[in-house]
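During the second year of the project, the team shifted from modelling isolated chains to modelling whole assemblies. The rationale, set out in the original proposal, was that interfaces cannot be judged from single-chain predictions alone. As a representative example for this report, we include one of the complexes processed in the last quarter. Its constituent sequences, exactly as entered into the pipeline, are reproduced here:
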Amino acid sequence: MLFAFLSFLACTGSPQPFVVYSGRSEKLVGKLLSDAEQELGFEIEVQYGKTPEIVNRIMVEGDQGMADVVLAQDSGHLGALADQGLLQELDQDLREGVEQSFQDEKGLWIGTSGRLRVLVYDSTRISEKDLPKSLYELKDAKWKGRLGWAPSNGSFQSHVSALRSIWGEEKTKEWLEGVKANEPVSYPKNSPQVKAADEGKLEIGWVNHYYLHKVGIKDGKAKNYSFSNPKDAGNILMLAGAGIRQGAKNTEKAKQLIKWLTSEKAQRHFAEVNFEYPTKTGIKTHANVPALNLSQLAPVSQKSLSDLGPTRKMLKDLGLQ
Amino acid sequence: MRIGGALSALMAVLPIVGLIIIFSTGPTLSPLEFNEEESGGWIDVFQEKNTFSLLIASLKLGLAVSFFSTVFGSYIAWISHRTVFVGQRVLSALCLLPLAMPSYVLALSLNGLLSDQDYLWDSFKSGFWPVCLCLSIVCAPYAQLTVGSALQRLSAAEEEAAILLGGNSWRVFKICIWPTIRPAIAFSMLISFLYAISDFGALVFLDYPALTWRLYDAANGQDMAGAAVLGVGLLVCVLPVLACAQWLRGGVKKSSGVANQRAITSRPATPLQRFLFLVLSALIIGVGLFIPGIVLWDWSFSAYMDGATFESPWGAVADTLKVALLGAAFTVLLSFPAAWSSARHKEGPLLMQFVYLSSALPGVLLAFGLMAVALDLTHTAANYRLLMSSGILLFLGYAMRFSAESFGPLSAGISQIDKRQEESSVMLGATPWRWMRQVVLPLLKPNLTASYIIAFLAIMKELPVTMLLGQTMGFKSLAWRIYDRQTEGDLHDAALHSLLLVGMALAIAIISQKWRRNV
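Output from the structure prediction step:
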């Protein structure tokens, strides 16, 4: 009787409902997926979670998994799924119009929007010209007591993975030790750093660009800064993206959704509502977000951002986790 | 009931079985196996730098929280049930509410308050003491409810007889009262310990590295095997604590030998009792409710004045009520046979250990463990989906997670039932079901209520199990919405949902207080 009652509560629609596992929050993509439902004409069942848990879930579920499409907060985790053969190759027409550097090399996932790693600083305590020209300078002793970071944050770890690829293991370790010696304040996430900078409690933080526009900034003291050295290792674009699960039951609908996520309407949503960088060429960023200069970005493959295991080990060994 | 108890206890180990499946399964899950080149095998996770010291940190925190929360909660319960003075009922009800406060919300608001206080030593701004305070406040209501249920069943006749025979207050307490409340105290210490060692949110926001950090880190790094090993390692370390709790629980006073016991009449509180009660309740209510309440109100109200938009919370409120109402009922139902066995049968105490073990598992591991068992049993995607969407896994997850917490009041109450009442019922021709319905359940009303409230409030704020096992049913609870919004820095929206969560808990606590007084 209990089973029957519980089954009555179950919200199964069609025998094979179209399911999206979203590592992106409802706040960011809920409205977008709701719009997609209306425009594409089929029901989309979204299950939200932290990106690592979503990925774990897909790995544990294997062939019995429910997901058709996976939305991940960062391409590192999509790379992890791709490496395990858990994503399908996307058709060429799904990848058209998106920058080549914003896709997986083998076409297994596609970037839907980007977040730039930046420094957030208190403009009343330091001017832009006095900020470091490169990320590497943050290990200099002159920054002691003036920094903040969030080592447990996923974006931080993805960035360190990129540094290992760009600088190598030894130089990255040396840099982390140097910054650690400057006694940065550890924050659990990015948004508290932005607030702290705006309230005069933090001089320089290391965050994703869009928090400045999303968090309720009152005094206007906090500003974003990208390193002025071209192709500096500090100028990393974190891609959020999507892929189709290998073994998905609704592949055609999945393709329609992927195509919709890179359509003009969806891309404008990412830009104007979420303050993110669109991945489709020709779409402008929000008026308050500077346009992305691709030539300033560090030359690093998105795949390298997924190499999180050795990064976590390095951070643990350094006592940063 | 014996078989039911054994089944309940065995079901409690399902998540552990699932974790073993995750760890040991072959090629399809080979990505989750340890990279032998890098780590040298699964045993190496224990040899990694800091793992042992993190384990010690977890155990230290668990022991401290269990001590302080039990002292706080027991004293509040004592004063509530044994004395009377103006405002005592309201304050007692308010002291229960921190149970509904998510530990990470409390920790976040404490961190925001303490970090700005320049006059405080650094060790009081973050680290062990703030985390200990935070978790002790959240766990104190367990002791208050459990010890309170035990105190409600004390016999006035026994105490009066002891006094008449020349016993002083200490002897009356030692001989009449302590044997009755001892299992409740042992239970609440154990539950608080298990809660503290499996918590993660408070530890992150108040910066106290412990084993759950390493465990969540492994899970976030797609190293579920490593997380599973750490989880099982944590359980192994909990075993000695379970043994101590069992020893403390020992010497249970099975029944008073008095039928239709007369309840203790409350006396006016002495000035000292009143003072201590007020100080303690001010601490619990202040830290557990007032501070986060002010912070949450500030976030939401100032955002409202700035013209921010809020997500409609009513869908989440409805979902929270639904899962909590059903989940608590399922949890109590599943706990009852195990509680009966533990109080009535020789093998009962052993069965209890299984139930406690599942409570020690962090929610994310419990959910994945159940998922792995479900995958193994169903074999096809369609059956797996049916099982997930039926809610069985979700409510089973709640029962596994919170059975240990809710069955304590039940066990304490069952142990107080006079066996001669059962014998009399049998002699008068009552069937076991009739005896249960007309004698046992009415006697256990306060214990069932306490058990249900504990489970209800705990489920309301639960996150990992709801997120992983509940979304196929379409449930998106207030706790989930709080997490979702604070992830994106929408603290005003997270604050509004948090205020609603606490408001619902307040309503439940007030209604239940009124009902328990009338029982």
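Chain A touches chain B through 58 residues (CB under 8 Å). Chain A has a mean pLDDT of 88.
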